[in-house]
Write a structure and sequence with these properties.
- The protein contains 5 helices and 5 strands.
- With about 150 residues, the chain is α+β, with helices and mostly antiparallel strands.
- Helix 2 packs across helix 4.
- The protein is globular, with a radius of gyration of 15 Å.
Length: about 150
């Protein structure tokens, strides 16, 4: 039996989310949000790209640029249908040298430093149900270029 694209996406994200520690929802201020679906995706992608750049820099310091160290993550944009509020679901794996609270603080600071982003909702990543929740909308969009496997 052939798998549906949704199932293939879920399976890939589950494999990427192995050992994730944080389930994060990032919301955006709606006054900055463009109207068209494509522009909403571009806007969210740009904001999340900047958020991850700040988070990686705060988590790894110089090793982020010099050695290419990155926080393992997956990013899904939701709320792209008419009238819905655009937001992103992320799963993140904290670096081994940080503890849960310290990494959560770095997530909050990184969100604060990102234009048009509201307060992040940070929860412990418990199981793969977060992936199913993240892709529940038919209109979801996975930001593939930002999905990153673990990198010391």
């Amino acid at each position: 039996m052939m798998q549906t694209p949704r199932k293939v996406t879920a399976d890939f994200l589950v494999s990427l989310a192995k050992d994730s520690t944080h389930a994060v929802t990032l919301t955006f201020n709606s006054k900055h949000m463009p109207e068209s679906r494509e522009k909403k995706i571009d806007f969210a992608a740009g904001a999340v790209r900047w958020f991850l750049k700040v988070l990686n820099n705060r988590s790894f310091g110089r090793a982020y640029k010099r050695l290419g160290c990155r926080v393992a993550c997956g990013v899904v944009v939701e709320g792209l249908s008419n009238g819905a509020r655009v937001h992103c679901h992320l799963f993140l794996k904290m670096p081994a040298r940080l503890d849960y609270i310290e990494f959560s603080k770095k997530i909050r600071i990184s969100a604060r430093k990102t234009r048009a982003m509201g307060h992040p909702d940070i929860q412990p990543y418990r199981d793969d149900g977060w992936i199913g929740y993240s892709i529940k909308e038919v209109s979801h969009e996975v930001l593939w270029e930002m999905c990153c496997p673990s990198n010391p």
